[in-house]
Task: inverse folding
């Protein structure tokens, strides 16, 4: 599962990516610093069930720090997008192709209004960042519509004659973008269209593409450079219908995480404060910068970076965490490791869905599951809950 970090050039996408992952990324104050996509791992924080068990866990795929499980999520930082990117402007075609497998987008915008459409620095407040939101949504819709529209009339006429459903036709065309049949079905229900696909116009395909993007590639806004934006500028993001915006200060988060890695401060991502380990190790400039960040955290509660990651996973994608085990009494695997794995699954997933997540053979040969907390036997259609510990029983 990937989260795509998107936006126009020079708004802080790579800084956001580096802050969330501490992975190396080229950062500079000019357009198209990023050419090739950067990949890294961020984490969603969850209370570890070992606190209820009373035994320390032995994590495999998701580390545990002080009772907080860090469940990994892959982040993808791609080249900046400019208007008419779907026509090939800038690095548009490459940008869009890199995003094919992203499950959701974090759209980084310059909340201070200090970057124009092309990514060039301008006087703060001279550019309207809400226009960036509209243009990027439009670019993504045109991208999807362009994929749908290739040889559409010919293929649609054949499908109408054969009685092939619109869901099947669209699913075949959108396989490379990761859209599910359910997402396609929902978008079709929400978009009034002629029963005959051959009569669908380019405008119809664009309307459908907008619905598909909302359903299959949901988006959260990171109102970045919040340390430079006024309260009034940040308040404007509250008027956006159906889109959550999180005020974000990526540069501050990156500074805090690097300082913590160097043992200069004690800081947990997403926290509203930090502790300086030894003030004598900080230069006067570092000390002044640290205190400026402390003031920001006191006023805003956090830098917003970790909030963006977690809200994208838990709200946009509606994912929960489950812990499959071999022994429902001790919550261990075959080697005796306590709570070795943590998996993200869609809310509403069944016990058998979890079995398939662990291994295809477990799903195919599923017999029953056992709730590790209640020790109750549950069937294949039992809906798992966030934080569940579950044993899968399958045919040998």
Result:
């Amino acid at each position: 599962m990937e989260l795509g970090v998107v936006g126009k050039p020079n708004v802080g996408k790579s800084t956001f990516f580096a802050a969330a992952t501490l992975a190396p990324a080229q950062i500079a104050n000019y357009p198209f610093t990023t050419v090739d996509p950067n990949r890294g791992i961020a984490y969603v924080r969850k209370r570890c069930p070992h606190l209820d068990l009373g035994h320390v866990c032995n994590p495999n795929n998701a580390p545990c720090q002080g009772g907080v499980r860090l469940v990994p999520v892959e982040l993808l930082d791609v080249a900046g997008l400019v208007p008419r990117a779907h026509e090939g402007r800038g690095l548009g075609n490459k940008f869009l192709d890199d995003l094919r497998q992203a499950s959701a987008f974090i759209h980084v915008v310059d909340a201070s209004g200090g970057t124009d459409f092309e990514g060039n620095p301008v006087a703060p407040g001279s550019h309207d960042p809400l226009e960036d939101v509209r243009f990027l949504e439009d670019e993504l819709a045109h991208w999807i519509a362009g994929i749908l529209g290739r040889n559409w009339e010919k293929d649609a006429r054949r499908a109408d004659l054969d009685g092939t459903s619109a869901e099947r036709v669209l699913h075949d065309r959108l396989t490379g973008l990761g859209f599910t049949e359910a997402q396609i079905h929902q978008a079709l229900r929400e978009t009034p269209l002629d029963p005959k696909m051959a009569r669908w116009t380019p405008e119809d395909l664009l309307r459908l593409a907008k619905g598909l993007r909302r359903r299959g590639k949901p988006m959260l806004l990171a109102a970045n450079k919040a340390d430079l934006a006024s309260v009034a500028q940040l308040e404007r993001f509250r008027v956006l219908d159906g889109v959550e915006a999180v005020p974000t200060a990526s540069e501050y988060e990156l500074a805090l995480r690097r300082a913590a890695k160097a043992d200069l401060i004690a800081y947990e991502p997403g926290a509203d404060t930090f502790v300086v380990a030894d003030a004598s190790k900080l230069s006067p400039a570092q000390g002044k910068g640290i205190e400026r960040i402390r003031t920001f955290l006191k006023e805003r509660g956090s830098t917003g970076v970790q909030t963006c990651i977690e809200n994208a996973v838990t709200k946009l994608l509606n994912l929960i965490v489950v812990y499959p085990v071999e022994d429902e009494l001790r919550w261990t695997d075959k080697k005796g490791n306590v709570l070795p794995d943590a998996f993200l699954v869609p809310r509403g997933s069944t016990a058998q869905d979890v079995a398939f997540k662990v291994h295809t053979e477990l799903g195919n040969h599923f017999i029953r599951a056992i709730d590790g907390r209640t020790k109750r036997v549950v069937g294949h259609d039992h809906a798992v809950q966030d934080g569940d510990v579950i044993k899968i029983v399958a045919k040998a």
About this structure: The longest strand covers residues 38-47. The radius of gyration is 23 Å. The mean pLDDT is 91.
